[in-house]
């Protein structure tokens, strides 16, 4: 019996010694981190101007905000044109690509004597760069009489998405 108690005591001493040795070599690691988003998405319209204005026509005063451009062309006679240049800038830090550029003239309610020609903006718009989109308003030169409907609206939506 004494041998059994001695063996149990020795085993307990060995277990305690192992626990002490383990705790002496155990290390607790703490990892702390913080993440911050520094990229900025900021694609906007920064200007609209008119050029190639036919004699006698009025380009009006084009207006724009960050996401909207508005113009009001007044054409005088068949063959007249006005071209509007819309400047789009990537003022952010994330590169972008053109997802879609859709321009829809009101052909149902608008004058058939007025048409639009569109030059889409650049397919790629790197951070800090700009591009232009051109909208040319045309009074059909083959029109032989003043149309009863004298206006035609156009709605355009240009969408850029993040470059992969």
Structural class computed from helices and strand pairing: alpha+beta
Radius of gyration: 36 Å
Total strand count, please?
A: 9
Count of DSSP helices?
Answer: 1
The biggest beta sheet reads:
4 strands, antiparallel
Q: Which range does the strand content fall in?
A: 35-45%
Poorly predicted parts: none
CATH classification, class level: Mainly Beta
> Total domains, how many?
1
So, CATH architecture? Sandwich
- Share in helix: 10-25%
- Distance between termini? 78 Å
Task: Describe the strand arrangement of the main beta sheet, using strand numbers.
Answer: 1-4-8-6
Mean pLDDT: 90
- The succession of helices and strands, N to C, reads HEEEEEEEEE
Shape: rod-shaped
CATH fold description: Immunoglobulin-like
């Amino acid at each position: 019996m004494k041998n059994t108690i001695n063996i149990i005591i020795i085993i307990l001493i060995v277990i305690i010694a192992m626990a002490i040795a383990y705790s002496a070599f155990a290390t607790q690691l703490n990892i702390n981190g913080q993440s911050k988003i520094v990229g900025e998405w900021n694609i906007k319209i920064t200007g609209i101007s008119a050029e190639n204005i036919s004699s006698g026509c009025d380009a009006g005063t084009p207006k724009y905000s960050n996401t909207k451009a508005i113009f009001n062309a007044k054409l005088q006679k068949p063959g007249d044109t006005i071209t509007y240049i819309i400047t789009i800038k990537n003022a952010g830090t994330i590169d972008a690509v053109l997802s879609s550029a859709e321009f829809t003239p009101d052909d149902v309610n608008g004058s058939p004597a007025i048409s639009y020609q569109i030059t889409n903006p650049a397919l790629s718009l790197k951070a800090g760069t700009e591009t232009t989109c051109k909208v040319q308003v045309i009074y059909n030169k083959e029109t032989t009489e003043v149309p009863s409907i004298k206006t035609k609206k156009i709605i355009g939506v240009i969408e850029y998405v993040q470059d992969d």
